[in-house]
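Lab notebook page, bench 4
Experiment: in silico fold of construct C2
Operator: M.H.
Input chain length: 235 residues
Purpose: comparison with the prior construct
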Amino acid sequence: MTEFVFRDDSYLHELAATITAVVDAGVILDRTIFYATSGGQPGDTGALRTSGGTLVPVTGAIHPDGDKTEIVHLVAPDAGLAVGDTVTAAIDFDTRLKLMRMHTALHLLSVAMPFPVTGGQVGAEKGRLDFDMPEVPADLAAIEAWLNDAIRADHMVTTQWITDAEMAANPGLIKTMKVKPPMGQGRVRLVRIGDVDLQPCGGTHVASTGEIGPVKLGKIEKKGAINRRVSLVFG
C-alpha cells in the first residue's frame, strides 16, 4: 500500500521514495506526493530523479484498476527504473497550487449554491460543478460576492478522519450524488472550511481560503431538465 503523503501535506514539492513495483503504465512507490486522477481532480505531473541524477518525466498519476490504495506514476516504458530504486519524486507545484486553489473554491461554490452536486471538474484555470438546479438563481452577483467575501475571510482549511460507520451514519455530509466518498478502507477523510463547510474529500486543498484569490462565476449551461453546469474562474 502506498503512503499518500499529500493527504497530510499538500505543499510538499519533493519527496524521497522507493520503487515497489514496475507495471506496464509506470511505477508504484512506497510513498508519494503525486495525487492520482480521481474525484474530478487531475493527477499530478512532474518527474522522478534517480540517485544518479537522471530526470524521468511523470506525465500523470492514476489508481490502477480502481485500486484506491495504490498510485501508478506514468513514465515511459524504457525509463530504466527498477524495483528497489530510490528516487526523488518532484511534482509540478505551480500547477498543483492552482488545482488546490480551485478545488477549495469549488467547495465554497457548493455552499453558495446549496443544490445536489451531480458532477464536477477541477482545472488549473477553470473549474465547474454540475447541480440538480431547476432554475438558475436570480441574483448571481450576490452569489459571486458571497464567494469572494468567504475567500477574503481567510477561513482555515483543515482535515479530519472519521470511520466508515460514522460516514454511513451522517449521509448529509455527502454533497455529490455520483462521486461517493472512498469507503471500504475503514476511514474517510473530511475537509473542513472554517465554520462554512464540511464534506468528505480526498483531494488537495490550500491551507486557508485567502490563498484562493478573487474568483468569478463563468458560464451557466443547461445540461438536462434540471441539471445546470456552473463554471468558476480565477478573477
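Observations: Residues 3-91 form a domain with the Elongation Factor Tu (Ef-tu); domain 3 fold (CATH 2.40.30.130). The chain is about 15% helix and 35% strand.
Next step: discuss at group meeting.
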